[in-house]
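--- STAGE predict ---
source: upstream dedup step, 1 unique chain passed
mode: sequence only
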Amino acid sequence: MATGLQMQSTLLKNGTLEVSLAQLDTPELAAHEVLVRVEASPINPSDLLFLYGLWLLLEALAIIMVLY
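--- STAGE serialize ---
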């Protein structure tokens, strides 16, 4: 059986985001299935805010904008 990498992320209780790569077995495919290999994928800019802990700042700005 072949293996592949999967990106996994865990948000720890202290607020730290842990990102890692896990090696997983590739599942057996049925006759009507195909396996697509992804070399790269873009990151949504709003996800970057979360990764760097800036989403709280964005949320605060949204609240301020609503108040005014």
